[in-house]
Hints:
The structure is a single chain. β10 (288-292), α13 and β11 (313-315) form a beta-alpha-beta unit. A 6-stranded parallel β-sheet has the order 6-5-4-7-8-9. The chain has a 6-stranded parallel β-sheet with strand order 11-10-12-13-15-14, sandwiched between helices. It is α/β, with parallel strands linked by helices. It has 3 domains: 2-78, Rossmann fold, CATH 3.40.50.970; 91-259, Rossmann fold (3-Layer(aba) Sandwich), CATH 3.40.50.1220; 273-456, 3-Layer(aba) Sandwich (Rossmann fold). α7 runs antiparallel to α11 (247-259) and α12 crosses α13. The chain has 19 helices and 15 strands.
Amino acid sequence: MTGQVPRAVLDKEDFQGVDIASIAAPVTKMARTILEPGQAPSILQQAFHLMRSGRPGPVLIDLPLDVQLAEIDFEPGNYRSLPPYRPAATVEQADAVLDMIVASERPLLLAGGGVISADAEDLLVRLAEILGIPVASTLMGWGVIPDDHRLAVGLVGIQTVQRYANATFLDSDLVVGFGNRWANRHTGGLETYRSGRRFVHIDIEPTQIGRIFAPDLGIVSDAGAALELLVAQAEARRARGELPDYSEWVERTLEYRRTLLRRDDFDDVPIKYMRVWGEMNKAFGGRCRYVTTIGLSQISAGQYLHVYGHRGWINAAQAGPLGWTGPAAIGVATALPDELVVGVSGDYDFQFLIEELAVGAQHNVPYVHVLVNNAYLGLIRQAQNAVFNMDYQVQLSFENINAPETGGYGVDHVRVVEGLGCLARRVQRPEDLASAFAWAEEQAKTHRVPVVVEVILERVTNVSMGPDLDKIKEFEPLPE
């Protein structure tokens, strides 16, 4: 809900008067300015209905000041909220999916964010276990199946990706997607992505079916509703002995997991980013909720970190709003005050909304924020060089006369963080990472404020992009 100038001056360039409904329309499910006070109950009823129906999303209601102050006749006892609309698959559609799975040799389930929105993680894992087939994840579906589950094959894509996941995907002959969008950073080139395999797409949003490419079978359904049917029908088929044995296929995926791993044990100074994520896996394990948004930090973290549970990875996906990590981590830590929340940022993401740390200090919101700082705008500079063959001077790397210990990395984030009422520590050697993470977790619990661990990284620009999806089969090691 947004405040607005009185109706009489809406179109008269009044102070802070702007047509916010038009501005917000492209990024909301509904955006509307209430011009008649008596319409407020029905518009709000519609807003809550739309917000929760189909794929969940935001609505914006704009309230002019005189509408806010108006009195209307309204009897709360006569008000009833509208139930959200959630389409559901049919038994016939579930059987059609299972028929395609049974007819394939190397089927793969693909978990998207819609599975998490439907709270259907357990159902998807149950379906995979009944059928005995592997599960891959999209960036928004990470955590649906624990990374250490025998049937988990990791993240498929061109950036935030495990090599063994791509190898598994390219060997599959059927992909059944649940609540996913076929986003381009997942698919890469569609010709390679689609070649040699069939697709089933199950999604709650009708406009998503066929939006990127036409699946062999499209089903408009809430992921949870579809999975409930599929689990029931699959169990019935198993009881009748009608399910194939996919153990050889699963063993092949496990071999990929054993052999296509990236190194994370580098001892270099400045620190390599791989070492940071390796130490975080040891320090935090499956006990935390990771929050991140975009950039080299998000991509590389997704390549190396491990997620083991429900909403263990909270991400802004393709929206990619720099600065989102800090406020989002504060929100997660507020919702889950007794759980370990870990934000992951590069220096540019961190600097966008660094002042929000003071909100965490003011309201005693504890979380750990890992800042991997190359003072180099790695991903942005990489794109500039690749596309324009230019190097724009927008990074904040300079000799700080007040903080020579930053070593030319510019902003003294430790002092800034402390000035905002939080705690911080800078790490410049890999052997100090483990103790810094343990210190940060303990300080967050003790003082109930955000705690920042800044890690000084090597200045690199080309580590975020893995090999092209169509080259994964070569199994060549990534550059060190």
